[in-house]
Amino acid sequence: MPTSATGSKTRRPRPPLRQRRRGFTLVELLIVIAIVAIGLGLVALALPDGERARLDEEAERLAALIETARAESRVSGAPVYWQPRRNDDPATDASGQPLQFRFVGLPRALALPTRWLDARTTAEVVGAPQLVLGPEAILPAQRVRLALGPHRLELASDGLAPFGVVVPAASP
After folding, report:
1. Domain limits at 59?
2. Quick check: is 143 in a domain?
3. How far apart are CA 56 and CA 49, in angstroms?
4. Tens digit of each residue's pLDDT, the chain (172 residues)
5. How far apart are CA 63 and CA 57, in angstroms?
6. Would 11 be classed as within a structural domain?
7. In this structure, is residue 35 part of a structural domain?
8. Number of domains in the chain
9. Going edge to edge, which strands form the sheet with 101-104?
10. Cα–Cα distance between 142 and 107 in angstroms, integer?
11. What CATH number is associated with residue 155?
């Protein structure tokens, strides 16, 4: 029986280092989780909104298509128009899908796309049913509003410059 006398207590020998339990303390785990959470938060803030990025891509693509049709109109001397799809428009493409927009007046050999990359994209010409793309070199100022989900943007031209993305005008 151990007593309070020196040397009467028996000690168990410590196991060798390799047999000791290895692991993390709770505090160490909480610190790692906090660091990972902060890193993920920063990454999430840096990532662009997917719908916004798709709308920007649609706008750039439409601007390039419009400028292609505008150049063709000037070269051929034929009037060309761009029309977004109206709800009552029964027109379909070669595969039977409804047209989402179309270029009127272009030769059939120049078959420009008639569908958005994202089917939820919508467009509206501001103040007119269609864009006039030529053949005149100087055209009236024109705007197109694009929308995808809650995001909106506008393409515009002053009649001389090419179409480009502009900040949407404030709604009255």
Report:
1. 50-166
2. yes
3. 11
4. 566 666 666 666 666 666 666 788 899 999 999 999 999 988 888 777 788 889 999 999 999 999 999 999 999 999 999 999 876 677 777 777 778 999 999 988 888 999 999 989 999 999 999 999 989 988 999 999 999 999 999 999 999 999 999 875 555 4
5. 10
6. no
7. no
8. 1
9. 101-104, 80-84, 131-134
10. 23
11. 3.55.40.10
